Here is the input.
Amino acid sequence: MTKYSPIDLNAQTARSPGGSLLERAADAYDFGAALRGPGMPPVIPQMAGPTAAAMASSDLPYVAPVQSWTGPVHAIDRDKLAEAGFILPDGPVTGIGEEFRIVKRQLLLGMRGGNGEDAVARGQNILICSAHPGDGKTFCAVNLALSLAAEKDIDVLLVDGDVAKPSICATLGLPDGPGFMDVLADPALSIESCVLRTDYPSLAVLPAGARTNNDTEYLASARTAQLLDALTAGNPNRIVLFDSPPLLAASPAAVLASHVGQALMVVRADRTTESALRDAATLLKACNHVQLLLNGVKFSASGRRFGNYYGKGE
Here is the structure.
């Protein structure tokens, strides 16, 4: 049964003492009804991952487990990140950095298990999605990748899955080039040759690749499942983070959901309607562990003020 649990994010100001972020948001959204209410049609995943027997009988070439990246190192444009309000690799502790520390702990808990919970199947593969464009999905995906890469035992691959409007490389100041779709379309192309290493040692990026009219069909293929298995095989500390197209704007996001163990849906507090949330959640039924990240909420000046503690002496 699909498990939905909330993560709250206040990337701008402090929490109000008048109630939690989710309690206040409940005035505008009925999250329980939107995610679990009656009348939601079932979603049949187009590709839920091949069995071992199916892979053995497949005509697809064998894909060896990917252990490390060997390409040239590219520098992340830290000035560009700072201007846009992102977390800075190896930068000072900030309020938004602390917020994403809270978010990533929940995802790491799903990946590894703990606190009485079992590890989520395929919990290393995480989808960052939203109902509509402009909800802050890519902003959250990049910040989450940078925060996860700060872990001492984590290797992060950030995949730009938004083929129609890729933005990950531009956001980080990295060169564009062959990427995810090219690897899926051409069995002779190795994924290692497309991954961009960065000067943040634990973070690598896979560009979206060339745009195609068959992106959904490629993502629903057995080759996609085989490649994703190869990325994490033998490497329990690698996280593959997907920045997807908006769920209600393009079909690939729903297919990507069938390849991941965890999904984080970014909900814009001042924009996402309950009906949009319900429709988007329906498309995520192929993923068994969906969490909400409430974005763009403003509070009063009192309450939680992450970052100040580290920036001021007593």
